[in-house]
Amino acid sequence: MSLSRRQFIGIGGAAVAAAAAAPGLRLVELANARSPEEAATSLQRWGLLIDISKCNDCDVCVTACSTENGWYGHNRPATDPQWIRKVTLKDNQTGYVESLPVLCQHCEEPPCVDVCPTGASFKRADGIVLVDKHICIGCRYCMMACPYKARSFVHEDTTNQKPYAPRGKGTVESCTLCVHRVDAGRIPACVEACNKDGHQAMAFGDLNDKTSEISKRLASAPSTQLRPDLNLNTGVRYQGI
Amino acid sequence: MAHIHYRQLEGRAPGFYAVLGALGALILIGLAAALYMEHNGHWVTGMSNQVVWGTPHVFAVFLIVAASGALNVASIASVFGRQLYKPLSRLSGLLALTLLAGGLAVLVLDLGRPDRLTVAMTYYNFKSIFAWNIFLYTGFFAVVAVYLWMMMERRMSDYSKPVGMFAFIWRLTLTTGTGSIFGFLVAREAYDTAVMAPMFIIMSFAYGLAIFILVLMAAMRGSGRELGDVVFGRLRNLLGVFVAAVLYFVAVYHLTNLYITQRHGIEGFILLHGGQFTTMFWLGQIVLGGVIPLVILFSGLGKSRAMVALAAVLVILGGLAQMYVTIIGGQAYPMPLFPGKTVVASSFFDGQIATYTPSLPEVALGVGGFALALALAAFALKVLPFLPQSLSDADADPHHEAAAKKQASAA
Predict the structure, then answer these.
(1) CATH code at A93?
(2) What is the pLDDT along chain B (411 residues), one digit of tens a residue?
(3) Per the structure, how many domains does chain A have?
(4) CA gap B242, B205 in Å, rounded
(5) Across the interface, do B52 and A156 touch by the CB < 8 Å criterion?
(6) Which of residues 26-55 of B touch A (CB under 8 A)?
(7) Which of B114, B338, B379, B395 is the most exposed place for a label (fewest CB within 10 A)?
């Protein structure tokens, strides 16, 4: 069978129209999700509340973070990365012992961002502090500047990376507040793990939204920042220290 | 004033090529060390997530600070009009360039991603002192190169004063930037103080002059040229004043910290019970790098050139010790995350004194930077007229007694 010119133009036209329309249909689907611009607007300020009175001796938050983001040690504690760690404190005067997780505090005025020569250390409009692994030169000035010891330098080769949490030898990394999950409308892995275990010591949410759980909890009980004297206005807040 | 004649190093002295060969070998070892660290990752060094800047930074910052200080001799001549220092100006500018090159090479080769140097040159965050320093360092090369041109090209010599003034201001800014790398760090108690900037400037005077004196002595002696007592005595006294000034700034820094209760921890660590850092401070920085050089330079011992050379070597070693205490000691003491509380347990060394042992590759890289600076200077002295043909008393200062006597006997 041979196609007449009319038939050829007809079929060809339909094919072209379908090819043109398909991405458009895909766009409709994408438009229903949050676009990257929407995800990082200053209308939100993502924050984390950690209630130490509910924080146990466990480290599910640490394990969950490591599994989620694919960071792991080589049995060399001094150089192994640690995006979140558990610290046990004893009050010098009273002897009271408490345990708490420490991670990037996602400061409003982050010293790591101030000192970074290339701008690889940056803060998103929604308050999440990140490292752009493509322009980090590995100078470690941010690690000198961070008052919370929140950052790790990747001291050796990395394997089995997660596509949403790229890592690279010779660059600096730290807690991303699980930005890939937050952008998809989910909560960070540490918070999810803590809640799943029933501790409910961690709450994640929008500090700008007065109706969010985190804002309500912060408004109803005393809380503090780590090193409040530095006036960095951290996104991570603690209750019960 | 008599006209100054400059000439490159002549002949094919085997000694010169032996020195150049030895420096070349050290440079190659340094490069191999850098390659080894980059290939394996920094875990093979003594550095860690606790001590993020190590021995390479001790050498790099020392060399960068010394570079700006080495330019001082030229500044004294062209900015402050001291004619006696004029014959030394070219060597002063040359050493400023080569020391900076050596220091920057070490700094860049220690980066986690030295291959991204182009990123550092194209992406800037202008709130970062590091970003300012990239401009201050590259600008320094350009400014000093022009300054040398003005000094070496007779037609341009009228401009050497304004250009020299500009270079002097630039170098003060540069060292302010280097000191402020630490001065602006709010997180760590050893830093976070404005005195860092002026202290680094005065340190640069001492380190730079110590290296200058040693290179001048070696070059003049190696090429069989005379270095008279007038010039030498001035340089010796100047070094003594600078060393004393460094000690003054160190005293002010520590007294301030000792007055502030919050900082008693870090002060106790550095001054009393910090192990290697306490030893390095008292023995290295204060005794070897300060007290002994002062005694040599301001006593009868200073009449011996060998003793003055020893004092200059000690100032350099003491300077490296000071950098070690400042950079590594300042990090080894834990940050005060939880004032009023003691860390009982942490998987990330919170509240603990960090251990640090310099590794061989780190030292090799640092020494390689030193060797690069000296090799570049030696090569330049060989091919271009940087060194005056004579610094004898009569040539250096016609008003000096020696010249007067000479004239008297001639008449």
Answers:
(1) 3.30.70.20
(2) 457 889 988 877 788 999 999 999 999 999 999 999 999 999 999 999 999 999 999 999 999 999 999 999 999 999 998 989 999 999 999 999 999 999 999 999 999 999 999 999 999 999 999 999 999 999 999 999 999 999 998 888 888 899 999 999 999 999 999 999 999 999 999 999 999 999 999 999 999 999 999 999 999 999 999 999 999 999 999 999 999 999 999 999 999 999 999 999 999 999 999 999 999 999 999 999 999 999 999 999 999 999 999 999 999 999 999 999 999 999 999 999 999 999 999 999 999 999 999 999 999 999 999 999 999 999 999 999 999 999 998 887 766 555 555 555 655
(3) 2
(4) 6
(5) no
(6) 38, 40-43, 48-50, 52-53
(7) B379
The reply to whether residue A140 touches residue B344, judged by beta carbons under 8 angstroms, is: no
* One domain for residues A15 and A125: no
Best of B52, B108, B188 to disrupt the A interface (most A CBs within 10 Å) is B52
Are A25 and A74 found together in one domain? no
Whether A27 and A56 map to the same domain: the answer is no
Chain A partners within 8 Å of B120 (Cβ): 117-118, 137
Chain B hits for A144, CB-CB cut-off 8 Å, are 52-53, 185, 187-188, 331
Expressed as residue numbers, the domain containing A149 is 38-239
| Residues A138 and A191 occupy one common structural domain | yes
ipTM over 0.90: yes
To the nearest 10 degrees (0 to 180), the angle between helices B196-222 and B89-110 is 120
Q: A122 and A214 share a domain?
A: yes
Residues B213, B235: contact at Cβ < 8 Å? Answer: yes
Partner B contacted by A137 (CB < 8 A):
yes
Pair of tokens at residue A197: 């275990």
Q: Are residues A196 and A104 in the same domain?
A: yes
Q: How far apart are CA B129 and CA B177, in angstroms?
A: 7
Rounded Cα–Cα distance for residues A136 and A170 (Å): 9
Instruction: Tell me: do A85 and A141 sit in the same domain.
Output: yes
A130 chain-B contacts, CB cut-off 8 A:
none
Beta-bridge partner residues of A90: A97, B342
The shortest C-alpha distance from B174 to chain A (Å) reads 16
Domain architecture of chain B: domains with CATH: 14-335+352-389 (1.20.1630.10)
Whether A87 and B352 have beta carbons less than 8 Å apart is answered as: no
- Judgement on whether residues A83 and A162 belong to the same structural domain of the protein: yes
* CA gap B222, A49 in Å, rounded: 70
